[in-house]
Amino acid sequence: MASQLWHQAPIVALDLEGSGAQDHDAEAILEIAAVPLTGGQPDLVRAFTSLINPGRKIPHHPWLSPGLTNAVLATAPPLGHIEAQLAELIDGRWLVGHNVNVDWRLLSRRLPALRPVGLIDTLVLARALGQPKRSLAALVEQMDLTGLVTASAPGSQPHRALWDTVAVACLLPRLVNRLWPDKPPTLESLRLTAGVPLGSEPTEQPGLFE
Asked: Is residue 52 helix, strand or coil?
């Protein structure tokens, strides 16, 4: 691992949308997406996304992601029905996300058998670069990636799982190249800079639509 270049490592971007932290231990996953990276770039052919039926009605709140209505979610599969697909994408790989512990904490609570190697946080990476605005949408705009992400996530939009996951997958190599402009870092260098422990708390409290 010490000498392995970061883009040679098994990495998968992840994002999920939940019913909200106000539900505490009853928070439900409503949508999830995972996008593997191949050679440090998003592998959209292998991308996976699904709505999730929470098994109960979700009250309307302004922070819920657009389009995640009870009528839409009622026809979606329950989380257990896609666990095997998620395990195939996640187990043995590094998960990358924006404030990734927010998503991982909820996902691991609902599917405790999942076994990623570790977590990499693009929010931590942006902080290392001294970015003044660090929300996912702001970073994507700053890096001139909005058009690419939107084109690569057809039918999705910001603050939905697929769009945000593709955004993370596109953002990671751009941030890495800015922080290490001369040559690609090793996976160990990336881990030391932007890795977070699997059981740690989120690095920042996200805004309603961060």
From this structure: coil
Q: Is residue 203 part of a domain?
A: no
Range of the domain at 66: 6-196
pTM above 0.90, yes or no: yes
User: 3-state class of 145 per DSSP?
Assistant: coil
Inter-residue long-range contacts of 150-158, CB under 8 Å, 24+ positions, other chains counted:
152/42, 152/44, 156/49, 157/66, 157/67, 158/209
Closest CA to 135 of 201, 205, 200, 44: 205
pLDDT in tens, 78-135: 999 999 999 999 999 999 999 999 999 999 999 999 999 999 999 999 999 998 889 9
DSSP string over the chain? --S-BGGGS-EEEEEEEES-GGGGGG--EEEEEEEEEETTEE-GGG-EEEE---SS-----TTSPTT--HHHHTTSPPGGGGHHHHHHHHTTSEEEETTHHHHHHHHHHH-TT---SEEEEHHHHHHHTT-S--SHHHHHHHTT-HHHHHHHSTT--TTSHHHHHHHHHHHHHHHHHHHS-SSPPBHHHHHHHHEE-TTPPPSS---TT-
123 falls within a domain:
yes
CATH number at residue 113: 3.30.420.10
- Give domain status of residue 35, yes or no: yes
Number of folded domains in the chain?
A: 1
- Looking at the domain assignment, is residue 209 inside a domain? no
